[in-house]
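Today's session is about reading a structure prediction critically. Students often jump straight to the picture, but the first step is always the sequence itself: look for stretches that repeat, for charged clusters, for runs of hydrophobic residues. Only then move on to the predicted structure, which in these notes is written as discrete structure tokens rather than atom positions. Here is the chain we will use throughout the hour.
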Amino acid sequence: MAVTTPLSSSKSVKAKVLLTSLFFSKKLSPRQKRLDQYLRDNWGVSAKDISWYEKALRHKSVVGSGKYEHADCNERLELLGDSVLDTVITEYLFKRYPENNEGELTKIRARIVNRQTLGTVGKASGLHEVIEARIGSEDSMDKIVGNALEAWLGAIYIDRGFQVVKTSIDNFLLPRYIDIQQIIEQAFDFKSKLIEWTQQRKLTLIFDTSNAPNEDNLFVCSIIVNQELIARGKERSKKKAEQIAAREACSNLTI
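Below is the predicted structure for this chain, in token form.
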């Protein structure tokens, strides 16, 4: 009588898993196969239930016409994905930028998860190519794509759990599609903010930046608005000294 060894048993299990995978993959429709491949290639996730991802891409403009009920659109998944994305991004920023306070982290997060950024990410990742929506919908394409991206993340969460969607955001969404350093620079570009504010009010603005006296490798920036000294900043680079001074000026002028 033949005896099954642990090794042959292991091979048998792997063979069964492979056969099961092939069996279910054959049952997928062409669209489902496309979504499954897109999910693997762009998000590093293997679907357990592909129907969640179909729903995530179904805009409300295509439901209620007989083929789909309202519950078949992506709005509920969008709500879930919005919360998941907020949580993952908040944790990422909390760990990555320990020197920033709560207000600063909130400002950075808001720029990452806003509709414009999510719409851009959705297009960059190719999500817009697989969305179901009627042309001429009252929603803009950026909004449709941004909402679908949140719903897509909600689908990953429901299908595979929090750790999988977190890994997908950390390893795919953030490094591939979002330049956080650029977002931070834009969020805290106090110099541009001050320039815009003074231009709108037709005020004169001077950034007087020079080497700090008696201090090597330091720059000092004095900000003068309408011939009045408003703020000073000191740093090791000219750019940083101007930003520090501009930040102080914005605070003093309550901009």
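Discussion point for the tutorial: Strands lie at 205-211, 219-225, 228-235.
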